[in-house]
Design brief:
Distance between the termini: 48 Å
Number of helices: 16
Order of helices and strands: HHHHEHHHEEEHHHHHHHHH
Radius of gyration: 23 Å
Oligomer: single chain
Shape: elongated
CATH architecture of one domain: Orthogonal Bundle
CATH superfamily of one domain: lambda repressor-like DNA-binding domains
């Protein structure tokens, strides 16, 4: 078991045997023997490996065995296998801590995600995807207004949202998978908030539209249409832009991006999809964006990044109910004990001031 844990941590860190050997001051042959179970590391070796891999020693002693079921990636090109292994290792480590924490709490703090009722049985055209997105918003009582915190919206409905720093230029945006029947969606930690939000909505679209799409429809295109419609419903697009336009001002799109958390490029796509811009009008604007370098780097400020809060909240709940101590809390949040204690004291200070 310890050998499997060393192997998983090494892959999650994106390190080869040789690279880990150099960082830990242990021979690559010895590490290989540990990973294959031919040899058992001493406590001193485990300390060196933990430091090199930036995990607590307790990580190697966990007995949890979980797997990502049918992970689906949102990626822009072929994802290198080494990077995919690193991402999955990082996600597994985060999910393990999440499940360990949930097992400590007396009652299930996370509701089981359920596909909303009232969805169309079959989606025959991309325009029909709009109705599916609106049905989800209606089932979740979201109305048609902007969703300020998409991660919180997902977490409230039983979707675990995680972030990973294992990024590779534009090759990876996120993934969705199930773990022990719990839905997990992972986004890149370093992306701007609007890109994270679109990925979250895109992965939700895959889940909602699964087994509903007609064979002739492309899954990625349908999920993109769902994401745009979920973030900004048709009614809001027409209210903000009007029904017919020949040109959309960049400053106008920038303001809408700040309000709805959908990129300027995303607004162009929504305008095209809903007929606000003709195909020719969209092409003209897209070429304008390309000429200014705005396709990849939009001119207005980045939208604030999404920030999962549920896990930290549950750690402090377990601490407050005396189910764990400060050392365990620090381990779960992967923080040094001093940093965790400081974080805990800040929480207490804030609550005291408001009493």
């Amino acid at each position: 078991m310890i050998g499997e844990r060393i192997n998983q941590a090494r892959k999650a860190a994106g390190l080869s045997l040789r690279a880990l050997a150099e960082k830990a001051g242990i021979s690559a042959m010895a590490i290989s023997k540990y990973e294959t179970g031919k040899s058992t590391p001493s406590s001193g070796v485990l300390l060196s490996l933990a430091k090199a891999l930036e995990v607590p020693v307790e990580y190697f002693l966990r007995t949890a065995k979980i797997k990502l079921h049918e992970p689906e990636y949102r990626k822009h090109q072929k994802l290198p296998r080494k990077l995919q292994t690193r991402i999955e290792g990082d996600v597994l480590e985060q999910v393990e801590r999440f499940f360990e924490l949930m097992d400590l709490l007396p009652s299930g703090p996370i509701s089981r995600f359920r596909i909303p009722e009232g969805l169309p049985d079959r989606v025959h055209a991309y325009d029909d995807v709009e109705g599916a997105a609106e049905a989800v918003r209606s089932a979740w009582d979201l109305g048609s207004n902007p969703i300020p915190d998409l991660t919180d919206t997902f977490e409230e409905r039983g979707i675990i949202v995680l972030q990973t720093a294992a990024l590779h230029e534009n090759a990876f945006d996120g993934l969705a998978a199930t773990v022990n029947d719990v839905l997990v969606i992972v986004v890149g930690m370093g992306w701007p908030g609007d890109r994270q939000r679109f990925t979250l909505a895109h992965e939700l679209g895959h889940l909602i539209l699964k087994d509903r799409l007609a064979a002739e429809l492309d899954k990625e295109r349908a999920a993109n249409r769902f994401a745009g419609a979920f973030l900004v419903p048709r009614r809001e697009v027409l209210k903000e832009l009007g029904e017919r336009r020949t040109w959309l001002e960049p400053g106008e799109l920038c303001a809408l991006k700040k309000t709805y958390g959908l990129s300027m490029g995303g607004w162009l796509h929504r305008a095209r999809d809903l007929g606000v811009l003709s195909a020719a009008g969209y092409l003209k604007m897209y070429q304008f964006f390309g000429a200014h370098g705005w396709v990849k780097n939009e001119p207005c400020d980045e939208y604030p990044r999404e920030e999962p809060k549920l896990f930290q909240q549950l750690v402090f709940r377990a601490l407050g109910e005396d189910l764990i101590g400060e050392s365990k809390g620090a381990e779960l949040l992967r923080k040094p004990l001093k940093e965790f204690i400081a974080l805990r004291n800040l929480k207490r200070a804030a609550s005291t001031r408001h009493q």
